[in-house]
Design brief:
about 180 residues, alpha/beta, TIM Barrel, five-stranded parallel beta sheet, two-stranded antiparallel sheet, 7 strands
Length: about 180
């Protein structure tokens, strides 16, 4: 799977010495990258001209094993650009839990209609912070959240475990959360 987005963490980029262009340019670069990848994966190693990128040859050797290409997951919830790119290019999207989550899904559905794309063929994933609490007191809330997300059509929760260094949160998740949501 190719997980990709337009970038958001300027501090991280600058800390690594990377160029962090304005948001408009980041989205243009994102679309160039998506188009280049799809061209490479198609076996067409010819030239590519995008908004910012010009390549003489889009060689991809060895070719990807997945056919027709690896699934593309686009992260982000921007309504005008990100979700439009999901509808146009991606097999999955990654959103974040928020009060606007249902609205974001509706916007994605509208973009899919405009692109002539089946909304249901796009896998919906979510970034989620697993904070079980010091002694597991938040397990019920996590299980409820995951069930609610599943009901809304999300199939994967990409998780970050709060205080993972203590190991206990992982044990609690394995012992209490996973069995409670296994049927989802």
């Amino acid at each position: 799977m190719l997980g990709i987005g337009a970038a958001w963490n300027e501090e991280e980029a600058r800390g690594l010495g990377l160029y962090f262009p304005p948001i408009k340019e980041r989205f243009e670069l994102l679309e160039d990258a998506l188009r280049i990848c799809l061209q490479m994966w198609s076996g067409d190693d010819g030239p590519f001209t995008g908004t910012h990128v010009k390549a003489e040859r889009t060689l991809n050797s060895p070719q990807a094993l997945s056919r027709p290409h690896p699934p593309i997951l686009i992260g982000g919830a921007g309504e005008r650009k990100t979700l439009r790119l999901v509808a146009r290019y991606a097999q999955a999207c990654n959103l974040f839990p928020s009060p606007e989550l249902d609205h974001k899904l509706d916007v994605l559905r509208e973009h899919c209609e405009r692109e002539g794309r089946d909304y249901d063929e796009i896998e919906k994933t979510v970034g989620y912070t697993f904070d079980v609490g010091a002694k597991g007191e938040r397990v019920g809330q996590i299980v409820g959240d995951l069930r609610d997300l599943h009901r809304r059509g999300f199939s994967v929760a990409h998780g970050r475990v709060q205080d993972v260094w203590r190991i206990t949160p992982l044990e609690i998740i394995g012992r209490e959360v996973l069995p409670a949501v296994a049927e989802l």
